[in-house]
């Protein structure tokens, strides 16, 4: 029987943040919507959403981008989970990860927030950390740059050359996580690149 999944791309609202490292989660859900020919629309849960399917006849996907700032993402995520009756085990949060090198994707369910305030707020709002995460590596800043500034900077020229591939790979990871489960997605996306 088909189930409903909530896939949330974390980020900050507005043009100033669109192409920054902190918004890579939203770029991934944009890619998932584009693959299905869908456009985001406003939702009363302070988010923009697309209602679609993994594939015809397969699980339903609610793709979402909160309109709130990253650090208060939990309210919209919790409201959407309630509206669509999606339990935490079928919530997938896609977010940037400083502690993973750029061009690398890691998947997990549960665990700590690793200092990521958006993930922390979602866990608090849902009342559990037991939701899936697709962690998109952005790497640590060079030299002494403050990580808080680094995540709010646009991707560099070298990164932009591979950003489309990274976003596409992360979208693939979401689809595989929903369609085949966490372990299958980890086995594919945690393997070294050939």
Automatic annotation (TrEMBL):
GO molecular function: hydrolase activity
Residue(s) at site: Discriminates between blocked and unblocked aminoacyl-tRNA: 12
Protein localization: Cytoplasm
Family annotation (HAMAP family): Pept_tRNA_hydro_bact
Assigned protein family: Belongs to the PTH family.
Quaternary data: Monomer.
Protein name per Swiss-Prot or TrEMBL: Peptidyl-tRNA hydrolase
Gene designation per UniProt: pth
């Amino acid at each position: 029987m088909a189930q409903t999944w909530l896939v949330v791309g974390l980020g900050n609202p507005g043009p100033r943040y669109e192409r920054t490292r902190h918004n890579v989660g939203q770029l991934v859900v944009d890619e998932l919507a584009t693959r299905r020919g869908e456009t985001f629309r406003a939702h009363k849960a302070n988010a923009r959403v697309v209602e679609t399917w993994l594939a015809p006849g397969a699980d339903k996907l609610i793709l979402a981008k909160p309109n709130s700032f990253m650090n208060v993402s939990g309210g919209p995520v919790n409201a959407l989970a309630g509206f669509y009756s999606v339990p935490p085990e079928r919530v997938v949060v896609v977010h940037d990860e400083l502690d993973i090198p750029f061009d690398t994707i890691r998947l997990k369910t549960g665990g700590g927030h690793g200092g990521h305030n958006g993930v922390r707020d979602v866990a608090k709002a849902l009342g559990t950390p037991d939701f899936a995460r697709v962690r998109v590596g952005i790497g640590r800043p060079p030299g002494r740059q403050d990580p808080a500034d680094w995540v709010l900077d646009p991707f560099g020229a070298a990164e932009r050359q591979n950003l489309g591939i990274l976003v596409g790979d992360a979208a693939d990871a979401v689809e595989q996580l929903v369609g085949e489960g966490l372990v299958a997605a980890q086995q594919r996306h945690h393997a070294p690149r050939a």
